[in-house]
Specification:
By secondary structure, the chain is of the alpha/beta class. It is built from 25 helices and 17 strands. The protein folds into three domains: about 130 residues, no CATH class; about 130 residues, Methane Monooxygenase Hydroxylase, Chain G, domain 1, CATH 1.20.58; about 200 residues, P-loop containing nucleotide triphosphate hydrolases (Rossmann fold). It is about 50% helix and about 15% strand. The strands form three sheets. Strands 3-4-2-5-9-1-10 form a seven-stranded parallel sheet, sandwiched between helices. Strands 13-14-12-15-16-11-17 form a seven-stranded parallel sheet, with helices on both faces. A hairpin with a 6-residue loop joins strand 7 and strand 8. Helix 11 runs antiparallel to helix 12 and helix 21 crosses helix 22. The radius of gyration is 27 Å and the shape is globular.
């Protein structure tokens, strides 16, 4: 019984710092304008911490569980502080949400000067110069570019008409997704573009207009990929800024590793050959590059998945040396071209030189990768590539990202050791966990199928199918089944379509947005999916009451970059390399279930190691939301059946 004489819990003290007070006052005004006007303690705690970190120039790592409202918790203090801020998101979808929804809402409800811009990589914008060349050259130009048979003239005309009226040229604003070949015909990558000033259409370049808007804005929204490129380039891609917010920070280490590395496939040589052929009648040069492309594919295909521990080796070393020689010869030939007064020819020359120069620089790096980089061959077999990536990104970020900015890293799940992995200096670092507003103990049940065989033993797949059948029937459909491989997903879908009365869709059948729309619209439907759906899926309401996970998502033992990191970590490899990734991905997958205060449901983990492992099960369980737990399937079935009544 409660003690009637006990003192009531003290109300949280009002902050004394005026900056924090102004931030919380602004946040209160904003949340009062939201539907429901709900005040969230975790959101206020996070906003206060961000405001203090910005003022004191300290770095902040904050775990903000689902439902916290972390976007407003970092946007409001950044705006109140008046410091130029870059927000880097893990996905373009979140980027679009911030710039298209959250920031306009804040501008409407805050009595402050709010200016923002969204900036994406150059290939996300239609290129007016490419449209101009195609319009002048028609089918002949497309043939020279190697796109005549793949790009529909009707679709290209539609893109050109859209570009005439578009204020941004941003691919995301198209009424429908273009075909890859059509978009390739009307866009250019950073590897191809030497700068708008070199082109006749440069004054109306969409990508340059976006960069200009970003330079003038107080808050710039980018994705993590672009921020990683900014750091790797020495800080030249983005405007100078005082604060950077890394949202969905659990993905940041891997994103930076990818952007700081190299990826050379045969298409790099054939693309350069076509670019040269469009402006220079030099058959030996173009044939030589096409021959390198063919040899590149032949040499790499049998070795897909192999890590090159001792460097390139004799065969690949000879091939890379040949590629350097022929690319260098191509660049020399391009330099010798005098386009005269032909502006289009001059533009094509500059683009081809940019392609050749960037490829040559990367080939030189491949020739001498050094001990701090990992070299391997990656698939698919139809398009193998030679990859190089840094063994770790901590030193790159410690030197190139953090010294001159305040960094706020946030996610619903912060991996253990993230601060060390990304090189944050401990003397200027604050860690915070603001929890989640959801009542997980009442809203959700975590069921572990402890009686199933070990996933490495015969009979596991059949046992998983039996569990899925029983749970899906109890849930009445309403299931997001997450798998760690396409093989397991396909096998489960094939086995269960004849055993349950509920429609089953798989990830292979439609694009992700269309799948999620169909799944949300029909509560009887089940969606079977792999890693791309473990995060970034938001389906609140009655369409989702069961999330199943087939195995604990430990990374593959043969993944080359992680192999190298394990070797460096030695006996600590499992706890510093494998376990943090599994913990983070599990928390992300489990987080698909409860998306609002009204949601109820079951998470079913079909890997018995979550219940039986003595060495790591509690590491995983403690990272999950605090749900009630059971090993009894009947209890999970009863919970699900009660939700249908």
């Amino acid at each position: 019984m409660p003690d009637p004489d006990a003192a009531a819990p003290a109300e949280p003290a009002e902050p004394t710092d005026p900056t924090v007070r102004r931030t919380l006052s602004a946040l209160d005004r904003v949340t009062a304008a939201l539907p429901g006007g709900e005040t969230r303690d975790g959101q206020r705690e996070m906003a206060a911490a961000v405001a203090a970190a910005v003022k004191e120039r300290r770095h902040l790592v904050v775990q903000a569980g689902t439902g916290t409202g972390k976007s407003l918790a970092y946007l409001v203090p950044a705006i109140v502080a008046g410091r130029r801020t870059v927000v880097a998101t893990a996905t373009k979808a979140l980027q679009d949400q911030l710039a298209g929804k959250d920031l306009p809402f804040l501008k409407e409800h805050l009595d402050l000067d709010v200016s923002w811009a969204m900036l994406k990589g150059r290939s996300n914008y239609v290129c007016r110069q490419r449209l101009r060349e195609i319009a002048k050259g028609g089918e002949e130009q497309l043939a020279l570019d190697g796109l005549a048979e793949r790009a529909s003239s009707a679709e290209l005309a539609e893109l050109a008409a859209w570009a005439e009226d578009s204020p941004t040229g941003d691919r995301a604003e198209l009424p429908r997704e273009p075909s890859p070949s059509a978009w390739a015909a009307v866009s250019v990558s950073a590897r191809e573009c030497p700068g708008a000033s070199r082109f006749p259409s440069g004054g109306t370049c969409f990508a340059e207009a976006a960069r200009t808007a970003a330079a003038e804005a107080s808050l710039v929204v980018v994705n993590q990929h672009l921020y990683g490129l900014h750091v790797a380039s020495g800080g030249v891609l983005l405007p100078e800024h005082d604060v950077v917010v890394i949202d969905e920070a659990h993905a940041f280490e891997d994103v930076v590793s990818a952007t700081a590395g190299l990826d050379i496939a045969a298409t790099r040589f054939s693309t350069l050959a076509r670019a040269i052929g469009a402006i220079l009648d030099d058959q030996p040069t173009t044939d030589g590059l096409e021959a390198v492309a063919a040899r590149w594919d032949r040499a790499l295909t049998p070795e897909v998945g192999r890590r090159l521990k001792g460097g390139l080796g004799e065969e690949l070393g000879t091939l890379v040396a040949l590629a350097v020689e022929r690319t260098d010869r191509a660049l020399a030939g391009l330099r010798a071209i005098d386009p005269g007064t032909n502006a289009e020819a001059g533009a094509r020359k500059q683009r081809a030189m940019q392609l050749a120069g960037s490829l040559l620089d990367e080939l030189h790096l491949l020739s001498a990768p050094g001990p701090t980089n990992v070299l391997w061959i990656e698939g698919p077999d139809s398009r193998p590539s030679l990859r190089l990536a840094p063994l770790d990104v901590a030193s790159l970020l410690a030197e190139g990202a953090w010294p001159n900015v305040t960094a706020v890293l946030t996610s619903a799940t912060i991996p253990p050791g993230l601060d060390h992995a990304v090189g944050l200096p401990t003397e200027r670092l604050v860690d915070l966990d603001v929890g989640s507003p959801f009542d997980y103990e009442q809203q959700a049940l975590l069921y572990c199928a402890a009686s199933l065989p070990d996933p490495r033993q015969p009979g596991f797949d059949e046992a998983v199918h039996d569990e899925l059948e029983a749970l899906i029937d109890a849930a009445g459909g309403r299931t997001l089944a997450l798998f760690t491989s396409f093989r397991a997903m396909d096998a489960a879908a094939e086995a269960l379509r004849g055993r349950v009365d509920h429609p089953i869709m798989t990830q292979r059948e439609r694009p992700k947005p269309a799948l999620l729309a169909a799944f949300s619209a029909d509560p009887a439907t089940c969606l079977f999916a792999t890693m791309g759906f473990w995060q970034g899926v938001d389906v609140p309401g009655p369409s989702l009451s069961l999330v199943t996970i087939d195995r604990l998502p430990f990374p593959r033992p043969d993944e080359p970059l992680l192999q190298a990191r394990r070797e460096l970590a030695r006996e600590a490899a499992f706890r510093t390399v494998d376990l943090p990734r599994a913990v983070t991905l599990m928390a992300q997958g489990v987080g698909r279930l409860i998306r609002s205060t009204e949601d109820r449901g079951v998470v079913a983990v079909l890997d018995p190691r979550l219940a039986t492992s003595k060495s790591y099960r509690w590491d995983i369980v403690r990272a999950l939301p605090p749900m009630r737990r059971t090993r009894d399937r009947a209890e999970a079935e009863q919970f699900l059946e009660a939700l249908r009544s």
